[in-house]
Amino acid sequence: MTKLKVGDQAPDFTCPDKDGKLVSLKDFIKDQKPIVLYFYPKDETSICTKEACEFRDKYQKFIEAGADVIGVSRDDAESHSKFTSKYSLPFTLLTDKGGELAKLYGAEGNFLSPGRVTFIIDKNGKVALNHSALLSATSHIEESLKVIEQLK
C-alpha cells in the first residue's frame, strides 16, 4: 500500500501493547480525540530514544491539546516494557510483529531500516498529517502539536 495521504481514512488496527493488552485505533477514536501515531525503527537506538524522550517531554502539551500519543515498532512487549520503564514514557507503545501495521499505513521504510513516519489521525479517523523523517528525531513533534491545535 502507498503511504496514507491527508484526508484518507486511517485503517483500524489491533496490536499488543507493552503488557500484551490488545489496543485498537477505534478505542482512541471513540473518545473523540486526535491521535499521534508514530512509527519508529527500534527501541534503545539513539535517534529512536531521542524521539521517544521528546514525545515524553512534550506529552503534557499533547494531552492539554486533547490528543494522545501511540508509538509503534517491531520490538516485542518485553523490549517496549523495558524501554518505557527506563525512560519513563507515559504513552502507549505497540508491537507491530512482522511490520504488518507499518505496511498497512505505508510506513514500512526500506531494506535498510523500518520507517520513521508520524501520522495525526483526527477524531473522525481521518489522516490530518503524515510526516516522514528517517534521520530526524524531533522535526515532526512541534509540527504535530500545531496540526492538533488546528483541529480544535
Automatic annotation (TrEMBL):
**UniProt-recorded Gene Ontology molecular function terms:** thioredoxin peroxidase activity
Active site per UniProt: C48 (cysteine sulfenic acid (-soh) intermediate)
Q: Which domain of life is it from?
A: Eukaryota
| A Gene Ontology BP annotation from the UniProt entry | cell redox homeostasis
InterPro entries, A to Z: AhpC/TSA, Peroxiredoxin_AhpC-typ, Peroxiredoxin_BCP/PrxQ, Thioredoxin-like_sf, Thioredoxin_domain
Q: Where in the cell is it found?
A: Plastid, Chloroplast thylakoid
| One GO CC annotation | cytoplasm
Q: Which residues form the Thioredoxin domain?
A: 4-152
What keywords would UniProt list here? Answer: Antioxidant, Chloroplast, Disulfide bond, Oxidoreductase, Peroxidase, Plastid, Redox-active center, Thylakoid, Transit peptide
SUPFAM superfamilies to which the protein is assigned, alphabetical: Thioredoxin-like
Entry EC no(s): 1.11.1.24
Give the primary localization class.
plastid
The UniProt catalytic activity note for this protein reads:
a hydroperoxide + [thioredoxin]-dithiol = an alcohol + [thioredoxin]-disulfide + H2O
What PANTHER family does UniProt report for this protein, alphabetically? AHPC_TSA FAMILY PROTEIN, THIOREDOXIN-DEPENDENT PEROXIDE REDUCTASE
Q: Which family does the entry's similarity section mention?
A: Belongs to the peroxiredoxin family. BCP/PrxQ subfamily.
Q: How does it assemble?
A: Monomer.
Identification of the protein by name: thioredoxin-dependent peroxiredoxin
Lineage of the source organism? Answer: Eukaryota, Amoebozoa, Evosea, Eumycetozoa, Dictyostelia
